[in-house]
Structures are given as C-alpha cells and as structure tokens.
Amino acid sequence: MLSKLTLLLRSFARVTVFYYLLFLLLFLLVLYPTLMLLTASFFTGQPGAWGEPTLEGYRELINTEGIGEIIFNSVIYASARTGISLALALTFAWAVARAHVPGRGLMEMLIPIPFFIPDLLTAISWVMLANPQNGLINQFFVQFLGARGPVVNIYGWDGLIFHSVLHTTSFLYLLLVGFFYNMDPAYEEASIASGATPFQTTFKVTLPMLLPAILGVSILSFIRALESFEDPYLFGTPGGVYVFANEIYRVLRHRHPPQYNAATGLAVILMIITFVLVAVQWKILGNREFTTISAKGYQPRRVTPHRFVRWGIFALFLIYFALAILIPLTQICASSFFKVFGLYKPEHFTFDNWLTVFRDPRTMGGLRNTIIFSTIAAAGVIALGGFIGYIRIRTRHWMGPTLELTAWLPWTMPGIVLGLALLWAWISLPQPLNLYGTSAIVILGLIVNGLPLGTRTMQSAIMQVSKDLEECSMVHGASWLQTMGRIVLPLLRIGVAAAFVIVFALSARSLTIPLLLYSYGTETLTIALLYYYEEGYRNITAVIAVIQLALVMGLLILERVTRPRLSN
Amino acid sequence: MRSRNWTGLFAITLALFTIGSDRAANAASLPANLVNDPVAKALGPEIMNAALKEGRVVWYAGDNTGEFFKGGGKEAFEKRFGIKVEPVTGRLREQTDKVRAEHAAGRKIADVFDGVDQYLMELHRAGALEKFTPPSPTLEGYDKSVFTKEPVGFWTPLFISAQGMIVNTNLVKKEEYPKSYWDVVNPKWKGRLATRDPRSAGGGGWQFLQFYNHPKLGIDYIRKLKEVVDPFIVPGGSREMRDAVLLGQFPLGFSGRPEFLTDVPKGSPIAYVVPQEGLTWLPHSTALIKGATHPNAAKIALTWFYEIQNLQLLAKEGGRMIPHPKIKMPIPEMEVGNYTMMAAIPTQQLADPGFFFKEMEKVFGRR
User: Fold this and answer.
1) Which partner for A170 in A63, A114, A193, A359 could form a disulfide, CB atoms 3.0-4.6 Å apart?
2) Distance between CA atoms of A363 and A353, rounded to whole angstroms?
3) Gap between the terminal Cα atoms of chain B
4) What is the mean pLDDT of chain B?
5) What is chain A's mean pLDDT, rounded?
C-alpha cells in the first residue's frame, strides 16, 4: 500500500515537474523577451549594449516625436479597416449562410482565399499597379488617354485602407460565417411567425443575436490592424502616414544612428494598448472565436432578398474577387515574364527573370530556409500547443490557465515588436546561449509567433476527443503513454494537420519576425522579397512573390487532398 | 660571464634561423601559382597560408561592390587564390546594424564591410573595426582628400557616390537645364521637381546636408526651395527616383547619379546635370572587421581588391566614381575631374547628423 502511494506521489511529482519545465520554456520564449523589451525602453543603448538608464525615449516620444499623432493615425486606420471590412464580411457571410443569392457556392469557395494569400504579395502587386511614379494604371492613362499626370495614387490613406480591407474582409468572413451557419433558427422562425418581414427579422433578430460575436471579432480585427506592418510600410510610409509598426521601423532603419530607445518605447506603448484590447476581446468572446462546429445540427433558414439586393451582392462579390485576387495575382504573374516592368509587349517576353531567381543564392537559400524553418516552427508549436492544450483541458492543475495565458501573450505583440524583443533577449545572453546569427533565433521567433494560434487550434482538436475514450483505454489496462500513442494521437491527426498548415503558412509569410533576426545564411523568402522590392527590381520581386504564393497554396492544396485519407 | 654571452648569442641566432626557415618553409608550401603572386608577396606567406586554411571570406557589400563580384570579380578571386568569397549585398543601414549586432553577440559573420564613411564611423565607435590598410601600391594614387581622414587606418578609400540632378529631355529644353541650384527655386518648377527624402539617412538626406553646408546655398536655399517649389518627395531609393523622371512624372529631379546614364536603354530621355555649385558626394570605403572569423582571407581579399584591374571592373560594373588617375570611367559624366565638387561634409556631421534631419523635419514636416 505504502509503495503504491509512494509511486503515485512520485508520478505526481514527475508530472508537476514537467508542468514547471514547460512553464520555464514558455518563460524563456515569451516572458523573458517581453521583460527585456520593457527594460530596454529605459536604457540608451542598442541590442547587446545597454548604455545608460534613461527616460529620454519616452520623454522624446511625448514631446517631439508626436506619439499623439501615431496613436490617432493608428486608431483611425484600425477603425476604418475594421469598419469597412466588417460591413463587407457581414454581407458576404449572411449571403452565403442565410440567403439565396446568385453564385453562392462560388462566393463560399473564393472569399476565404485572400486570407491565405500573403498580404505582402498583393500589396506589392497593387504598388506596381497604382503607384504614381511608374504604376501601370497611371502609365496607361498617361500613354493612351492623354492624362498629364498620375490619375491614381496608392500611397497614403487611400491605398492603406483599400488594401487592408481586401484581406481583412476575408479574415472576418472566415470568423463570422460559422456563427451565421450555427445560429439556432428557432428565433428567426418565431419572428417570421409573428408577422415580421425577412428584412425586419434579419435586422431585429439575426444581427442582434450575433452582436457579441460581431463585437468580439471586431476587436480582434482592430488588434490585427494595430499590429500589421506590411500595409502601413508599403502604402503608409511613402504617403507620409505613420502608425505604430511603420514608425518603429522608421526610427530603426531611417534614422542615423538608429533610435532603439524610441523604438522600444513605442513598442511598449503598443503592447499595453493591445494587451488591454485582447483582455476586452477575451471577456466578450470567451472561447468562441474559432468555433465553427456546433454540437447541434441546424439547418439554417435562408431568406430570399429583393432581386436588386441579390444581384447587388453578387456584383459586390465580383468586384471584391477582381480586386483581391484576380487583378493583383494576374499582374504579378505577368510581370514575372517580362523584361521591362510595365512593358507587356510580345518582344519583351522572357524567362530570364525566373532563371535569375533560380540562380540567386539569396532567393534559393531563402526558399530552403523558409521551408525548413516553417516546418520546424510548425512542429514545435504543435508539440508545445498540444501539451499546453492537454494540460489546460484534461487536468485541473492551476498551471493550465497560466500556461495558456503565457502562450497567448505573443498575440498582444505585433511581429515587429516581437522581433525587437527577441533580438534584445537573445543577443544579451552569453555564449553559447547567445543565439544571434544562428537559424535557431529565427525558428524560435516563428515558434513564438505561431504559438497563440497553434495552441488554440490544438486545444480545439483535443476538446473534440472525448475524455471517455482515454478513460476506457486505461480501464482496460493501457498505460497513459499507450493511450496517447494508440488512441488520442491518431484521433488528433486532422487537428494536428490543420494546426501544421496554419502555423506553416503563418511562418512562411512572416516578414516582421525574420526582419530583425535574420543574418547572412538565415534569410527567408520574405526577406529576399523585401530586399528586391526595396532595391526597385520589380520583375525579380514578382517572380519571388509567385514562388511564395505557390509554396503557401501548394501546402493548402496538399492538406485538402490528404484530409480524406487522414479522416480514414 | 663570457659563456653566458655566447649562450645568448647562440639562442638569438637559433631563433632567427628558426623564423627564417619557417618563412622559407611557408613560402615553399604555397601553391606554385601563388609563390610569386603580388598579393601573397605583399602580405607575406604566413598570412597567405593562413588564408588558404580559412578558405573563405564573407564580404558585406554595398550594391556596387555586389555588382563587381557578380560581374566577374568573384570568379576571378576564387580562381586566383582558391579562396571562396561570399558577397552579401544589402542596404547599408541594415548591413551596419548586422555587423554591430554580430559584434555585440560575439558571433562574427562578416569579415569585410564596405560602405559609406558614416557607417564605418559608427562601426568604429562600436569597436567593431580592425586597423588594417591593404599594402597595395594603387592606394598611393588615390585622391585621398575626398575621404574621411580620421581615424587613420581603420578604413580604406574606395569610391565616391556622387549626385547632381536628372532631367527628362523630352520635357525640359536644354536652355532650361539648371545652371545653378538656385535656378530651380522658381514657381515654374512647382509640382514638377522631385527629390529623395531629405529627412532620412539616404541619398536625399546627404545631398541636402551638403546644400546646407554650402556657403552659397545653406538653410535659406532649402527653405526657399520648400516655400517656392515644394519638391515632391519620391518614396524609395534611387531607382524609383530615376523612374519618376524617366517616365515623365517629373521633368526634373535631385539625387541624379551619373551611372543612371549607363543603366537605362540607349536613347532614353534622360540627362545628368551638375549645376555650378558642384556635385554633392559621399566617400565610400572598405574595412576589416575586428575579430573576423577569416581575418587572413579578408586581408588577401582586400589587398587584391585594390589592384587596378579590379577597380576598373568596379567602375564598369558598379558604376561609381573612383578618384584615381589610372581608372577610366565608362562615360565622361562619371569622371570626377569633370566637375566642381562641393566641400566634404565635416566629420562631426557625418558621424552624428541627427541635428540636420531634425532641421529638415522642421522644413519639410516631420513625416
């Protein structure tokens, strides 16, 4: 009896030690860089050299750097982007899930696609199309229609909001459509039975019922807007519009010498704002944000709107499809096959750009690194997220919520801030712990970046496997490890595949994480893309963008193809 | 006493003999093609042998040096010495940050850095540079007056990045080409003049800093320019600037570089103009990184780089102006001697130009 108790206690101690080790790992990955960033904002130095303690960075932000303008711009940008995208996403989600509209199947298939296409790619394509210097649209107007100057200018507020709305609509649609599908139709039926018109029912029953979900995803979208870098950098910076992310980049890369003090100060302020917003969003949305499968099977009731509304929505979808997918992707593919950017004549057709890229060590190394780093990062996130999810869902240990919260912390940190925090953290350690200049620092960055989404995806997958199965296995004499290996993991494979695809795609398209962490030999494809874009090699940029698109879309197709096999 | 003297003498003789025989052995162990190589001779067989053992050198290069390596420089070096050279091109601000971070982390990747002198000053302040001057006779012929003089020996002059103005010849008649920078301070150029950003550390910022220091231009010129013409700040780098003028969005632009003329299809409507106040320019040099992983290979590469045929290739492929009488530029517009050059930016301003960018933010707005 005593020995059994001792064994039990030992086993308990072993398990608890594992929890603490896991927490220690998360501390090193997430909390330590955050604390380093916070500390660095009170010092004058640069990564690796602390300098003197100071409050000058904050003082300068308040007095001369115009932090008020940055906050104001950020709020305007995030609000406009969220507001317009939400209106479009609600329309599309409602049309797909609750209405009879032409092309509904097509809409359902195509609207999610922009979410999976890297923002950087379509952004670069739109810059090529509509920049005032040599944008194709402007060249067309000048050469063929006699315009005397640029007709459209993608730089500034217009371009910034326009492009961000294109991909945010897809993101919000993906989050909202599930709510529309899974809503209990009994209330709507009751409304109709009470004499309300479908229009009244939509606005007085359907939308109010969805209000908490709409509010929750709106805050989520607002946070993503505050954190985004690609759009503000590509459209805002040239047009003189600065929000947090491109301002941090500006003081680091366009000031001489770089002002790390101001950058860390800005990063800390942004982190505080996003942290508060995440807390509010959690409070409102709880665990619902990724719920697309409900326990009950509802048959959603569809309304038939007026034909103007029906065809209006279809026309809106066609415009959206053209702007978000068709035009930018066609343009970027076409550019990759022509000698001179913008001169699409048969005599200028060439494969040279492709040959140049295939011979370019920066791009080929970047492609190789992207595949390796993203694979390791996805595997790492699945392992970490799986453990965290399991502890959170299957045990009542107080460490569960702590681990979950720590894994979620990077959600409050924009990529550029996270990159800066990791740079400070890992460059300050003595050798051999100092990881700067190695692939490990980029991979760790990608793991931390993928952790919130990966953990949540794994948690959802674990939730779907009933605890009874595990108990049943153990009652029949299987050990915990055997149960895991033979019951739980096989049942989790679809969830694992989904988490892998999500984290891989997130890592492969990440620009801000490797931006401050890469060194020679550890460049990723996005770094090569940005380099050639900044240096003005438009056609080479187009080739790399097509390769990146093929990588992400190829993985998505692979996941779709293998899903039935995994289900079996 | 006498016996002790004899012993000492014997020891010294033995030591000298050992050193001499080591040198002879080192020289003898060099591959046959390198025994009489001028670079190997200039640096000595120890360095050459050590370089061969290191086998590679990582060179953080500016775009122009990158073009040189791509245009045959890499192949020539590797064939001659059997040492691999890995040129890593990138934006100089980013390259400088990388070198500084590598220095702080104690993990050296770069062996050689080439860049504009203000970046070298920054790296020198961070203690990231090693004192080394390539023993190359070519250096004696350089016009060193245009390069930063202090601190001597931490970097070596290479070329200058010169800027004047560019003109779209379809939109501007020859008689309208600006003869003085003051000629563009005229309402007729309002909305038609482009510039790179004068508020940041790039081509625009450094050009305007030389306007600022010029006795006939100064801050008054910059303020008037903004007030009368309000030049359009073209986002991006020099290629975007060139395209804006070449495609006719702006007839006239600052930050014009002579190599633009070699970089566009023949017959393109573009001209390079240098007003009477002269060229604005920045010195660009090379340096050895302190504690480099391949220090000997780096010394070989740097010494080799300054051979006349390599500088000539750099002028052709990299397209920058090399102030050396033996180097022939691809086009007359790139010959340094053909223009008046503005006075050099004072060392102190080059090292810490923050005050100037703040001044420019006052004139052009903060962002």
Assistant:
1) A114
2) 12
3) 81
4) 86
5) 85
Looking at the complex, report in whole angstroms how far the Cα of residue B346 sits from the nearest Cα belonging to chain A: 16
Among A33, A21, A94, residue whose Cα is nearest residue A447: A33
Q: For chain B, say whether A283 makes contact (Cβ under 8 Å).
A: no
Confidence (pTM)? 0.82
Phi, psi of A429 (to 5 degrees): -85, 150
Total tally of structural domains belonging to chain B: 2
Q: Which residue of A has its CA nearest to B59?
A: A520
Mind telling me how many Å the CA of B122 is from chain A's nearest CA?
A: 8
Does the beta carbon of A148 lie under 8 angstroms from any beta carbon of chain B? Answer: no
Peptide bond into A257 cis (omega under 30): yes
Q: Among A236, A117, A36, A114, which Cα is nearest to A554's?
A: A117
| Closest alpha carbon to B89 in B109, B118, B119, B59 | B59
CB atoms inside a 10 Å sphere around CB A493: 15
> B171 CB near a chain A CB, below 8 Å?
no
Q: What 3-state DSSP class applies to A53?
A: strand
- Across the interface, whether the CB atoms of A520 and B106 are under 8 A apart is answered no
Domain interval for residue B63: 32-160+283-331
Paired with B19 in beta bridges are none
Q: Which amino acid is located at A441 in the chain? A: I
- Of B276, B295, B351, which is closest to residue B118 (Cα–Cα)? B351
By the CB < 8 Å criterion, does B359 face chain A?
Answer: no
The predicted pLDDT at position A376 comes to 97
Answer whether residue B8 is part of any domain.
no
- Taking the C-alpha atoms of residue B111 and residue B297, their distance in angstroms, rounded to an integer, is 9
Q: Does A534 touch chain B (CB under 8 A)?
A: yes
Instruction: State the DSSP H helix or E strand holding residue B312, giving kind and residue range, or none if neither.
Output: helix B308-313
Return the sign of the alpha-carbon dihedral for residues B235, B240, B245, B249. negative
pLDDT digits (tens, 9 = 90+) for B309-343: 999 999 988 778 888 888 888 888 777 778 888 98
Residues B327 and B312 sit within 8 Å (Cβ to Cβ)? yes
Q: Give pLDDT tens digits for A86-117.
A: 999 999 999 998 889 999 999 999 998 898 88
Q: Do A534 and B240 touch (CB under 8 A)?
A: no
**Residues B109, A520: C-beta atoms closer than 8 Å:** yes
**B282 has a chain A CB within 8 A of its CB:** no
Write the single-letter amino acid at B4: R
Q: Which residues of B touch A431 (CB under 8 A)?
A: 106-107
Give the CATH number of domain A19-54+336-568; options: 3.90.180.10, 1.10.287.70, 2.60.260.20, 1.10.3720.10.
Answer: 1.10.3720.10
Distances (CA, A) of B82 to A77, B35, B42, B262: 56, 14, 18, 33
So what's the ipTM on this one? Answer: 0.77
> What CATH superfamily is the domain A56-133+155-325?
MetI-like (1.10.3720.10)
Residues of chain A with CATH 1.10.3720.10: 19-54+336-568, 56-133+155-325
The DSSP secondary-structure symbol of B266 reads T
B16 part of a folded domain: no
